[in-house]
Amino acid sequence: MLLVPIIITAAVLAVILSNNNSAELLKSKPAHSVMSHWYLSNGRRFDTLKNDVTEPISISAETEGSTDGKCLVIKSENLEITLFAKGKTIYKSADRGRRLRGRRITVIPLSDVKKGATVTLRLSPAEKSVGKILSPIYFTTNNDFLLTLFSREKSTAFAILILSFAVILLAESAAKRKSTAPLYIIGEVLIIQLLLLCKSDLAQLFISSSLARLVIANMSLWLLPLPPVLFAFMFVKIK
Question: Fewest CB atoms within 10 A around its CB: which of 8, 97, 201, 217?
Fold first, then answer.
């Protein structure tokens, strides 16, 4: 039982200390190139990182090199994204309205886009929200994106793994002692795991809806104090 607080503390600290790399989605990876030259329909340059999206806009850029096996990777918040090439719709966000709220990573395959073709992004903010692009728009392969994502989020994955180990230890303790006390700690650990997952980019691999991830993360925050309070009340009743 003494190992459990150490395990939980180590897991949470590992995630906190790893968050200094969160400014860029795909950092220091030569396989990724950044598409930074986007232009509005009037020919003016549009900086995707500095400009919020308060109304629907269209921006265009030319693809660099071969598009075989390539994709665009866009990390955004409160945005509906549609991609066109030569008037053809290549991709359109499945969610609409309020369901677009929250952060998401959009991966758009470019297999139907010819080499050097100009692509157009249609960006529309979610209902009653301001849309943002949170990282550079990357031109990469799906495999490279996934490998880099897992590498970037390895601290979170490791934290969730060792917290699972803590749950196993607590469950064994509860079974041996026939006590409900470890169950409250198990509940706290499970809430922490859920919160860590929903706050990371890994969550999209399991929960596709950005609104659902946002709701679950907020619910986890609200529930976080509950198990310790119930745990404390149990000892008050015993005394």
Answer: 97
